[in-house]
Write a structure and sequence with these properties.
Elements (H helix, E strand, L loop, with lengths): L1 H19 L5 H4 L10 E5 L2 E4 H11 L2 H4 L5 H27 L6 H12 L5 H10 L4 H22 L5 H10 L5 E2 L2 E10 L8 H16 L4 H8 L10 E6 L5 H9 L5 E5 L3 E11 L2 E2 L2 H30 L3 E3 L2 H5 L22
Antiparallel strand pairs: 1-2, 1-9, 3-8, 4-5, 4-7, 6-7
Amino acid sequence: MRFHRRFVAFSVVAALVAGVAAGMYVTRAIGRADFVDVRAVAYVNGAPINADDLDVRLEQILPFASYHGAVKAERLLSLRRTALDELVLDELIYQEAVAEGKRAAAGAVEAELDAVRKRFDSDTQFAAALNENGLTERAFRERLARTVLVRDARAAHARQVITESDIADYYRANAAKFQRPERVHLLQILVRVDPASPASAAPAEGKARRILARLRNGEPFGAIARALSEDEYRVKDGDMGWVHRGRLDREFEAAVFAASPGKFDVARSLYGFEIFEVLERQPPTQLSLDEARPIIAERLERQRRDSALGAWRARLLAAARVEIRDPDLRSARPAVFATGSLAAGGVLAPVSR
């Protein structure tokens, strides 16, 4: 466990270094057409993004095991392009914040530093991790400040205020979408069928029919369910509670919603044979504004947030000069559309060098 904690902690430092390294070049690189960093895979308004930064961001995207051999070259290139797009976006956000005179709150930076330090067993281990990454604590604090500044800028652009009037207007315009589906209060006993053994279906059906006969002869549903049902609802006397359309598999659902309340029956499902009783049925019902309010608020907040972030990404890109030096990366398309990545708002159109 001690080794694992130490490994994770060193990884945290490495990831943070990679996440902010490009920003260390901004003040000396922006506007310097003659500045060339041999490690750079791309430039964002003159600021380099280095290969080491890209490798660490790629490791954050890929599962650890697949990164070491399970991903085909073409797929790996696409994922690498996704990682690059995300680093480009981070750099553009940082540059805009700096141009607007924004700075990370000192308290937030210290909180981040303390959180990283606490992942180590001692201050000595923390200092060793910094040293391994070529950093002093002061330099690491400066890089954390960049991380905080980018994070806060993202949060500010994502923040949306949804008013009661917004919710009420949306409900009035979309009331038909807020209906509770037809539902039944369902009791159920399962007799499983092994899908790998078709021959097990006949004896399972025979057992189900015998259980059905016992129920129809007046034996308590709960007692039989506790003794014989082969799923987790046996501990609840077979009571599945209220079940709405769309929750059950198709064949079983058709039988359940065609059944009359108070009658016992048996039907086939994906899992085997289901002996069931519908206790009560409720037709589709219109949700009230109060019932729909949390759904609407979440939906509006997500829609407006995505729209605001998309417009921000588009604006940053429209005003940016992005140069990708690697021709394979330049022509690759992102493999995934990660939250907050440039790919989520459109494929980056780089300037050739």
